[in-house]
Amino acid sequence: MVSISIKNSGRQIETVMVRSILIALQVNEVPIKTLCGGKAICGQCLVRILKGQQYLSPVQPRETLALQRLGADPDMRLACQTYPGKDIEIEIINYGSKQITPDLM
Ligand code: FES
Fold first, then answer.
1. Domains defined for the chain, CATH in brackets
2. I want to staple 38 with a disulfide (CB 3.0 to 4.6 A). Which of 25, 69, 76, 80 is the partner?
3. Which of 30, 44, 63, 105 gets mutated to test ligand 1 (max ligand atoms within 8 A of its CB)?
4. What is the pLDDT of residues 26-84, one digit of tens each?
5. Ramachandran category for residue 28: left, alpha or beta (phi over 0 → left; psi -120 to 50 → alpha)
């Protein structure tokens, strides 16, 4: 198990390494926006990694393209494309805009 601390909410959730940050947040009912269903298209799930960037899954080409298009800072990742390997702390950029896509649950 790994934990994700969410600065916006003050919450800390537990998850497993095979679950993306987006899914972990949704399962724990932390409000995060998604329009594309986790396909690295909408950019709504953008998060800032405050601690533990070195423990994240590598950025893949599709995420790189999305991050470039969004003009994301170097410490930002798409929650739908990122898997934590150890404890991390994040800030949800679009915090509070909850839209759960059924096929992600
Ligand atoms: S949910 Fe759309 S880019 Fe992550």
1. 2-95 (3.10.20.30)
2. 80
3. 44
4. 999 999 999 999 999 999 999 999 999 999 999 999 999 999 999 999 999 999 999 99
5. alpha
